């Protein structure tokens, strides 16, 4: 566990809250962990976490929230610490790796742009935000904007903040498709054999 975290908030679908609490109680002994209900959209979940923090610990200008997706189980301590370090300079931090494939933007089945690959990155998590700055911007947005902007770093960009980039890692993969799960299982097995 990362000692620098004051609290570890697990935001989860309401139907799975008790199950998550039971699993954590069984396998992890850390009283910093709390399980709360997530929201219907990603930013609703972020706001639920922010509301929990404010209700239980108050509001401080330098508070940051480091957000990580459970579908990326191989995040490293180095990535997390880089996010924390960069949050001292930036109001938002995104984790990314340089694109190895050419990125193609298409609309209606036709290529409309092929950006220069050396400027393209693939976003990962964690993402880190200054809580006050994010909340101020998010609450000014229309409901439609809140639903459309599912990326916290983009919300901060729209607010005019510079977003720092923490170097990600290929191993910090997202498990989305059955093939990803096969790769993740192979990585997990390899790590357990060591």
TrEMBL record:
InterPro entries: IspD/TarI (IPR034683), IspD/TarI_cytidylyltransf_bact (IPR050088), Nucleotide-diphossugar_trans (IPR029044). One of its GO terms (molecular function) is 2-C-methyl-D-erythritol 4-phosphate cytidylyltransferase activity. Keywords: Nucleotidyltransferase, Transferase. SUPFAM superfamilies: Nucleotide-diphospho-sugar transferases (SSF53448). The keyword Transferase applies. Pfam families: IspD. NCBIfam families: PRK00155.1-3. This is 2-C-methyl-D-erythritol 4-phosphate cytidylyltransferase. It comes from Weissella viridescens (Lactobacillus viridescens). The lineage of its organism: Bacteria, Bacillati, Bacillota, Bacilli, Lactobacillales.
């Amino acid at each position: 566990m990362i000692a620098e975290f004051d609290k570890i908030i697990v935001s989860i679908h309401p139907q799975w809250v008790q199950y998550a609490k039971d699993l954590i109680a069984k396998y992890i002994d850390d009283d910093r962990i709390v399980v709360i209900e997530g929201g219907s959209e990603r930013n609703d979940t972020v706001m639920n976490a922010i509301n929990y923090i404010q209700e239980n610990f108050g509001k401080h200008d330098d508070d940051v929230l480091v957000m990580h997706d459970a579908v990326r189980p191989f995040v490293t301590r180095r990535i997390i610490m880089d996010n924390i370090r960069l949050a001292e300079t930036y109001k938002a931090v995104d984790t990314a790796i340089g694109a190895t494939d050419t990125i193609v933007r298409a609309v209606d089945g036709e290529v409309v742009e092929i950006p220069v690959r050396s400027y393209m990155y693939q976003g990962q998590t964690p993402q880190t935000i200054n809580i006050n700055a994010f909340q101020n911007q998010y609450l000014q947005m229309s409901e439609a904007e809140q639903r459309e902007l599912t990326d916290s770093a983009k919300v901060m960009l729209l607010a005019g903040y510079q977003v720092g980039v923490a170097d990600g890692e290929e191993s910090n993969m997202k498990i989305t498709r059955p093939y990803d799960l096969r790769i993740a299982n192979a990585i997990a097995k390899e790590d357990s054999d060591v």
